[in-house]
């Protein structure tokens, strides 16, 4: 596993008012950490990992990607650190889902995706076609629910207390709720489109891609 490639610049503060991964792992309490790992990483062992993080940061702050990877790995027996497999059946480090969860949370990815979907709804005329490609189940579920007209105005299940973006998000809640209620979509494909085996062999990175297509009514 290359932990730096998975989490990369998440340990670098990109904007003064935005948290980085170091803020999250060193500041949030154990319950909040576990919730983030479970919700955004779909990590079954979220409580065990959160406990390991809290114990480790009591000794030294977690400030490096490899440090976090080692902390997560330390919560499991050595024999299963690479026991997980990705969709190509390649060994995946046990901390992969933790890194995914932090990336999605820090980058606010689900809200950004929803904002983009609302922008597309506003830009499309009736009969306009919306095509969305997602790369993991959380994104795909959000797109599916959006096209079904579900209320997605409150995507922020977990808040970071020092995240000053909160006031901005509150202003967008009503707009997002209206976005979902004011548009109706007709699916072009009854089922989600996924890559064929030949597509995956040619482009392994697209193995988890899912395409949904709908017409704006």
Outline:
The protein has helices at residues 3-7, 21-27, 30-41, 46-59, 65-73, 96-107, 109-123, 137-147, 166-181, 197-202, and strands at residues 84-85, 91-92, 129-134, 185-187, 210-216. With 217 residues, it is mostly helical.
Describe it for me?
With 217 residues, the chain is mainly alpha-helical. It has two domains: 3-107, Orthogonal Bundle (DNA polymerase, domain 1); 109-216, Rossmann fold (3-Layer(aba) Sandwich), CATH 3.40.50.150. The protein is 49% helix and 9% strand. It is built from ten helices and five strands; from the N terminus they run αααααββααβααβαβ. It has helices at 3-7, 21-27, 30-41, 46-59, 65-73, 96-107, 109-123, 137-147, 166-181, 197-202; strands at residues 84-85, 91-92, 129-134, 185-187, 210-216. α3 packs across α4, α3 packs across α6 (96-107) and α7 (109-123) runs parallel beside α8 (137-147).
